[in-house]
């Protein structure tokens, strides 16, 4: 795929996507009685600042209603921010939406940009004309997507006859035919089976590594994040709660690792200061200890004091870590 051009040159590599105190407030009117209405403000995005370097692949996660889609809609120019400053490839998305369209690709997992009744290839041909993609480049990009997303046999099939996984792969290809430098993915693996998820993830990894496309990925499937993103941003109630590596998330979430030990025989629960035994099943016991601590001293003590036969260490479940972050925040806010 081709090199980035024009406006993107104006964007610094560090702040290819840049948000400074961005806000989005919706006025929601609701009926409170006969002939009575009340207007309520919903702060969907409440002063978010971050920047994404060119070529980064970043996870953007949070619970339902956190403000993820609203952020992405502002980044595409569909929604105008109520406050703050926002730039993508050096452009103001809301004001320069048409120019920006050439630099970004968007995939909304729950919707399709493809023409429902047309064969897949016809949607692509329409995009070829809409985006005025040079013929050679269109051909090259299409061939690449067809090969890597395994679309060959699907090109002649009307979109409505495609399975969800096939349609999603079709949508991802559609978002990339015009060589966007930035790809926003909103739930790209939602509802897909294991094989389709693996195909989509493999493709995104390859795209990011070889073409250097900047990717902002919103998902509820944390395996997407674990397999694709070094950096993750967590948003809740329209505010950024965390921005950093996955490992750091474990620290912030005070997560725990699990040590599973097999003893020679059944034994009362192991008692140690540095870990808590949470389950006993015959000769097998499960102990939790802080994810930031080393397992070695713990293992040494157990081996010393108990008839140890075998052991394994399980990494913390990122899902649990994040769930904990959300709940802690809620509890904090309530108090
Ligand atoms: N057009 C709108 N009018 C009024 N309120 C809206 C509008 N769009 C979003 N909201 C509200 O803004 C908040 C953030 O919504 P948003 O869709 O950005 O969340 P999300 O993080 O994408 O959630 P989900 O994971 O469920 O898709 C919610 O409270 C939502 O009800």
Automatic annotation (TrEMBL):
GO molecular function terms listed in the Swiss-Prot or TrEMBL record: ATP binding; ATP hydrolysis activity
Keyword flag Zinc: no
Main location: membrane
InterPro entries: AAA+_ATPase, ABC_transporter-like_ATP-bd, ABC_transporter_ATP-binding, P-loop_NTPase
GO biological process: response to antibiotic
Leader sequence residues: none
One Pfam family this sequence matches: ABC_tran
GO cellular component, one term: plasma membrane
Membrane topology: Peripheral membrane protein
Domain ABC transporter: 17-262
Record's subcellular location: Cell membrane
SUPFAM superfamilies to which the protein is assigned, alphabetical: P-loop containing nucleoside triphosphate hydrolases
Entry keyword set: Antibiotic resistance, ATP-binding, Nucleotide-binding, Transport
Listed name of the protein: Methionine ABC transporter ATP-binding protein
């Amino acid at each position: 795929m081709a090199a980035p051009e024009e406006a993107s040159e104006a964007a610094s590599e560090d702040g290819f996507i840049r948000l400074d105190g961005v806000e989005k407030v919706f006025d929601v009117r609701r009926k409170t009685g006969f002939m009575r209405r009340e207007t309520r403000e919903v702060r969907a995005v409440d002063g978010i600042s971050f920047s994404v370097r060119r070529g980064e692949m970043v996870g953007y996660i949070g619970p339902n209603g956190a403000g993820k889609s609203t952020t992405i809609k502002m980044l595409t120019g569909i929604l105008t921010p109520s406050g703050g400053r926002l730039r993508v490839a050096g452009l103001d998305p809301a004001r320069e939406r048409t120019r920006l369209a050439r630099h970004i690709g968007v995939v909304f997992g729950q919707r399709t940009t493809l023409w429902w009744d047309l064969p897949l290839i016809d949607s692509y041909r329409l995009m070829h004309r809409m985006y005025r993609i040079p013929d050679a480049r269109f051909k090259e990009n299409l061939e690449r997507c067809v090969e890597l997303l395994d679309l060959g046999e699907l090109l002649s099939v009307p979109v409505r006859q495609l399975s969800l996984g096939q349609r999603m792969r079709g949508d991802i290809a559609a978002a990339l035919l015009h060589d966007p430098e930035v790809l926003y993915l909103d739930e790209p693996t939602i509802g897909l089976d294991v094989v389709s998820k693996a195909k989509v993830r493999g493709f995104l990894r390859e795209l990011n590594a070889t073409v250097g496309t900047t990717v902002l990925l919103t998902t509820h499937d944390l395996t997407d994040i674990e397999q694709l993103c070094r950096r993750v941003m967590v948003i809740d109630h329209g505010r950024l709660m965390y921005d950093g590596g996955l490992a750091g998330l474990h620290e912030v979430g005070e997560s725990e690792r699990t040590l599973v030990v097999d003893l020679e025989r059944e034994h009362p629960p192991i008692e140690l200061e540095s870990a808590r035994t949470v389950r006993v099943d015959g000769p097998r016991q499960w102990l939790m200890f802080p994810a930031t601590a080393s397992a070695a001293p713990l293992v040494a003590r157990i081996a010393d004091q108990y008839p140890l036969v075998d052991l394994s260490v399980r990494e913390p479940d990122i899902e649990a870590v994040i769930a904990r972050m959300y709940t802690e925040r809620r509890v904090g806010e309530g108090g």
